[in-house]
## 1
Amino acid sequence: MATSVRRRVRAAGDQPGPGRAPRSSPRIPARARRVLAWAGRGGLPYLFLLPALLFELLIHFVPMLLGIVISFKDLTLFFIRNWLHAPWTGLGNYHIVTEFSAPVGQALVHSFLVTCAFTVLAVGLSWLLGSAAAILAHDPFRGRGLLRALFLTPYALPVYASVITWAFMFQYNNGAVNYILHNELGILARPAFWLIGNNSFIVLVVVSVWRNWPFAFLCIMAGLQGIPQELYEASAIDGAGIWRQIRLITMPSLRSINQVVVLVLFLWTFNDFSTPFVLFGTTAPPAADVISIHIYDSSFITWNFGEGSAMSVLLLCFLLLVTAGYMWFTSRGRRADA
Amino acid sequence: MRSAHHLPLAGGRRRSPLARPASFRVTRLIVLGALSIFAVLPVYVMVSSSLKPLQDVSGSFQWVPSVVTIRPYIDIWHTVPLARYFVNSLIVSSASAGLSLAIALFAAYAVSRYRFRGRRVFTIAVLSTQMFPGILFLLPLFLIFVSIGNATGIPLFGSRGGLIITYLTFSLPFSIWMLAGYFESVPRGLDEAALVDGCGPVRALLRVVIPASLPGIVAVGVYAFMTAWSEVLFASVMTNDNTRTLAVGLADYSTQTNVYWNQIMAASLVVSVPVVAGFLFLQRYLVTGLTAGAVR
C-alpha cells in the first residue's frame, strides 16, 4: 500500500506543469502525500478554495437551507431548546403569513409595500446624486481632491455612528433639522415630529440616500476614467458642447456600470437593517416598518421562528426573481446593442 | 478631463474647444455645493455637539457651542463601558479581517491563475451570498451556534469567536473578487518564472504575486476591517454583556433616563476616527480595485 502510494507520488512528481508536487521526503505521512499527489494532478486550485468554501457553507449556505426547513416547522419559543423536534406544519406558516385579510398577512403586505416605496425612492435618488456629482466633478479644478474626500465621508463612517447623529438631528426639541427648517428658514410653520408618524418614512429615505449616494459616486467616478478622452476631443472639434457630450458620450458609456450600481444599491437598500434599527429601534413606526425590521420583530421579539423563516424565504424568492429578471432584461438590452 | 489641464480655460475670446460654458460652471457650483452641505452637515453636528456642555444639547439646537469643553470625551468612558466595547470591536474586526484576507488570498490566486472546472460556479455562488438578506440566515445561524455550543462545549453563540467567523464570510466574497482583479494585473510571466525556477505555487504566491500587489491587498484588508467594524444586525443578537461591540454598545447612552447627546456624539466621533482615516487614506486603491474587478 505504502509503496504504491509512493510510486504514485513519484509519478505525479515527474509530470511537468506548474502545479508540481513538492519533492517527496520520507518524513511526510502517507495521507498527506496522497493529498499532495492529488494536488499535483490539478486539485491544487480546489485546495486553495477549500477554506473559503467551508466558511461560506457554514455561515451562508447551510443556515439558508436550514432556514427553508424551519419555515415548514412550527418553531416557537416552546420548542426552542429542542428545535430539531419541533412539529412539521407543512405549508402552515406560509398560509398564515400570506393570509392577507388576517393581521399577520396584512402587516406583511404593508411592510413589503413600504419597503418597495422606500427602495425605489432611495436607490433612484442615490444614483441621481452620485452620477451628477461624479460627472460634474470630473474636470480638474482647485479643491477637487478635498471635495472627493468630503463626499466619501458618509460612506466611510460606521453606520451606527452616523445614523445616531441623524437621529439626534431629527429630535423634536433639540434637533438641528427642526431648528433649520422652522426657526431659520421658516419652511415649516411649526416644528415637526420626525421619528414617529408618517414623517419617519421621509427620515428613512433621507438617511439612506445620505449613506449610499457616495457609493454610486465612487463607482461612476471609476467608470468615467474608462471613457477614452479621444471621444470628447473628436466631438468637441465637431462643435458639441459639454451638455451634448454628457448626453451622447458620457451617459451611454456609463450604461454597464450604472446597471451594476443600481442592482447593488437595490439589494443593499432592500435588505438594509442597520439604518432603520439605529433610527427607530426594533419598534419602527408603521410608516417605516421595512421588511428586515418586520422579520426581525416576528422572529426575535415574538419568538415565532417558523413564521419568521417563512417570511424570509418569501423575501429571498422575491429578491431572486427581481435580480434574475433585471439581469435578463439588462443583458438582453446589451445584446441588442451589439 | 486630463488634457483640458494644459489648455487655457475660457480665456477671453480665445476659447479652447474644451472650455466649459458658464451654464456648466454655475450648475457645477450649485450641485457640488449643495451636496457638500448635505454630506458634511451631520459630521459638523457630530463634531460641534461633542464639544458642547449638556445644557447646549438639551435645549434648542445651536450652531456654535456656548462654551467649548472636552468634558464629554472624558465622560464617555464612565457612562458606559466604552473601552470594553472598543476592545471587543477591535479584536473582532482585526481577527476577522486578518483571517478573511488570508483565506481570500489563496482563493483569489486560484481564481486568477488556474482554469479549473467549477471556477465560474464558485465565483458566482460566492458573490451571490452578497444578495442574501442577513435576516434569512441570522435565525438558523443562531440555532446552529447554540446547538454546536450545547453539543461540543465550544461557545460560538455570544462569543467573539462566533462573531469573527461570521464577519469574515461577509467580507470574503468582495475580497476575493477585488484580489483576483489585482492579481490579474500582475504579469503572469513573473510567477511562471518563479515556478520554472523550482518554487512551489504557494511560494510563488507568497514571494512574487503578493509583494507585487501589496497596496491592493492592504486596501482589501481595510475593507474587511470596516465591514466588521460597522456590522449591526448580527452584533445585536450574537453578543452578550461581555462581548458586546460598539455597534450595539453605542445605543447604551440613550437608554439612560437622561440622553447625553453630547457624549453620544463624542463617542460616535471616537469610534469613527479609525475607519474614516483608513478609508480616506486608501480610497484611491478602492477605486482602482473596483475598475480592475469590473474590467474582467
## 2
Amino acid sequence: MNAFFKRLLGKNTKPLTKVDASTVPLSGEQFKLASTLAPRIEPQQFIIGCGQSIGKQRDHNEDCLFTFSVTMGGESPSSPLGLFIIADGMGGHQYGEVASSTAIRTMANYLLKRFHAYLINPAEGMDEPLQDMMRAAIDEAQKAVSKAAPGSGTTLTAAIVLGQQMTIGHVGDSRACAIHKDGRVDILTRDHSLVKRLEELGQISSEEAAAHPQRNVLYRALGQGDVLEPDIFTTPFPQLGTLLLCSDGLWSVLPDDHLYDIVKDAPNLHVACQSLIAAANDAGGPDNISAILVQLIG
Amino acid sequence: MLVGRYVIQDVIGVGGMGSVYRARDLHFPSVVKLVAVKEMINRAADPLVKKTIVKNFEREANILATLNHPSIPRIYDYFTEDNRSYLVLEFIHGKDMEAMINETAGFLTEERVLAWAIELCDVLSYLHTHKPDPIIFRDMKPSNVMVNSTDHIVLVDFGIAKPFQVGQKGTMIGTEGYSPPEQYRGEAGLHADIYALGATIHHALSRRDPRLEPPFSFAERPLRKINPAVSLELETVINTALQYNPDDRFHDAESMKQALIAAGRKTGILSRVSAGTASTQTSGGIKPLWFFQCEDEIRGAPLYYDGSIYIGSYDHNLYSLNPADGKLKWKYATDGGVVTRPAAFEGDIFIGSEDQRLHVVNARTGKVNWTYYTEGRVHSSPRIAEGHVFIGSDDQYLHAVNLSSGRAAWRFETAAPVHSTPFVANDNVFAGCENGDFYCVDFRGELKWHYKAKMAVTSSPYILDGVVYFGSLDNSLFALDTRAGWVIWRFRMGKGSVSSPYVSDGIAYIGSADGNIYAVNTRTAKEVWRFKTEHQVSSSPVVYKDAIYCGSADGNLYCIEAHSGRLRWKFTTKGPITGSPLVYDDIVYIGSTDHFLYTFLA
C-alpha cells in the first residue's frame, strides 16, 4: 500500500521537515499590510468610543454626551445610522448640568422618534430633510432648556451620520473635527465665541486667543436669547478617518497634532478616548472633558 | 394694582430683570391716562448687593427725570415695593422698530429710515452732551426704538441694570449683535452708541438681524448688495458708523446727523416726497462672435467634441459646426425634433430625437453608424459610461445600451416618462421621472433606492461628493445622499424647476419658473444670492471661471458673477431661451427659440 503511494506520488517521499514556527503578533507594518488587504466589510458599520472626565479644577460635571447607532445587516443591508451629541452646560449655580442634559435628552428623544419609522422599515425612506430635522430638534432643545433652567445655557454639537454624509447641528464652542488618516485635522464647526470671532477678523492671533481672558465668552448658546440661529450643515464623513466631537475642556488644552497622534497610536477608539482625556488632565484639566470618536468602516 | 394708583392692563414686554406693563393711572379718573410701568425684580440674595441695585435704580430714575427731549419718554414716578422696583413712564402709542421691520413685506423705504436715523442721532447727541455727565445709551437696537403714531421715534429702555449674565464658571454669555467690539472689552463710550445706531439702521434697511450673524460682520454683508434700492450715499454713512475702530467712526452723533442730512440732500430724498426706484441694469454692448441659423427652434444644448460644435434643433437636424466661424461642416437629419444635448465617445456623436431613437453618428462624416429604438419620444440626453450609453425615454424606461453591440443591456421600468438626463456615479445610474420619482439603479438595472418628490423631476441630477442634487416641479431643489437616498436638505423656490443644477465651489446654481436663478450653499442649504430674470428659467446654469451663464424665457442670456450674483452682461435674443449654454475655451455657445445658435466671449 505504502509502495503504491510512493509510486503514485513520485520522488517526493521524504517526510516534511518540521519548520520551527510559532504564532507571533503581526508587526505594525504587517498589520497595516493586512488591513489594506482586508476584505470589503458589508454592511457599513460604526466603531464608537466615548469618554468623560470632570477635569482637575471643577467640582462637578456640566458636560453631557450621547451616542447611538444602529446597523441592520443581512440580505439587503441598510445604511447604518448614528446620532452623536455633546453639550457643555454653563450659567452658574447648579443649572449648567440641567441645561446640557435637558438639551441632549430633548434632542435625542425628538430625533429617535423621527428615525423610528425608518428603522422599522428602511424601504420607506424618510421624507423630512435631515437638516430640517436637526433644526427642529435644536428648536425643541432650546425651548426645553429655557424652561428647565432659565438663565442657563449650553453648547450643543450634534451629528447625524447616515450613508457617507453627516449632518451637523452646532451652537457654542464644542467642536466636531475630522481627523484624517494623513494627519490632517479639520475643525468642522465654527466656535461661537468672541475670541474666535476676533481671531477670524485678524484682530488677535491664535496664541492671543488661547490666552485671552474672555475666551469663554460665547455669542451664541442654547437657552440664551429669544432667537437662536444654529449652524446646520452637511459634509462627507471623513473616509478612513475619525470623527471627533469634544467639549472645550479637550480642545483648549490639546493641539491638533496631539489629537491625531493619540488617536493613531491607540489600539482602539475606547482607549483613544481615555488617552485623550488623560492627556487633557495632564495638561491641567481646567474644565470638564468630553470626547466621542467615531469611525465608519465598510 | 400698584400703590393704589396704577391698574395693570397688559404685559407689553418681558425682559431679563422683569416685565413692562401697560397701566391706567387712576389719579386721572375722568380720562383714560395710560402709562408704561417697568418692573425690576431684585433677586440678589446678599443684602448689600440688594441695596446697591436699588440705589443704582434710583440714581438712573433720577437721571431720566432730568431729561427733556421729544424722543425720550417722560418719567412720572418711581417706587420700590418688596423686591420689586417700578418706573412709571410715558406710554408710547406705536410699535417698536423691530416689529416694523418684521411686519413690513419687503424693505422699509430709505426716506423713512433716514428720517428715523436723523432723529436718533439727535437724541443721542442730546444724551451725549448731557451735563454734568454724558449719558451713554449702551443698548441701541430696533426693539428699543419705538415708532409712534406720527412716525417719530422714541427711545425706550434706558438699560437700567442690564449686565452680561455671568456664569459661575466664568463663562459669560452675551448675545448682542448691535454692540461694537470695544463694548465687549467693557469700554462703552459714545462711539459705541454710534456703532449700534449704524447697526440698527443696517438691520432696518437690510432686514438682516445682526443677532443671527457673527459679531462685527457687517462688512461681509454690504447693504446695497442685500437691498439695491439703498443709495450709495446712505450706505457710506452707515459704513462709517460701523467702523471696527472707534476712531474711524463719526466723532459724535451730531456729525453723523449732518452726514445723514447731506446724504439725503444729495440723493434728493430730503427734498422730494417719494423715492423713485430706477432700474440701472446695463444691457452692455455685447455682440456675438458669430451665429448660426437652424430651420426651427433650438431647445437643447451644444456639445464641443474634437474640434467641432454639435447642436440639435427642433428642425430634426443635428448640426456639426466649425467653432472658429460657425461654418456648417455637416448636418444629419433624424425623423423628429431634437431637444437634447449630444454626447460623444470614441469618434461617435450620440443624440436622442423625438423620432423615438438614439442616433449614433460618425463625428467626422455625419454618417449614421447605428440607431437604437425606444418606444417613446426621447427628451432625455444620452450619458456615456462604462461601455454603455444611458438614456431615458417617454416609453417609461431608462435604457442601458451596450456601446459595442448597440443592443439594450437592460431596461429599467419607470412610473412615467423620463425627461431627466441620467447621471452615472459609483456604479449607479441616477435619473428623475415625470411623476416625481427619482431613481438610483445599479449597473445591473436593479433599483437601489428611490425617492418620491411631490411633482415631476424633469431636472437632470448632478452628483458631487456623495450627494445628488436635482430640482422638481414641486418648487424644490433637493440634496440626497447617493448611498441611502435620504434627503439631506430641501431648498424651496417660488415655483417649480425643470432646470438642472450645477454645483461648483460649494454652491449649487439652479433656475426656476419663478424667474430666478438661485445660488444655494450646498453645506447649509442657505440662499447665497438670487438673480431675477423677467420670465421662467428652464435653462440650466453653467459655471465657467468666476461666472454663471444661463438663459431665460425672457430671451436673454445672462452672465452673472458667481459669488455675488451681480449681472456682468446680458444678451437679448429674439425668442425665449429654454436650452442651456456650453462654455468651452473661453467661448459661450447658446441656442435660442429664435432658431439661432450664438457665440460670445466668456
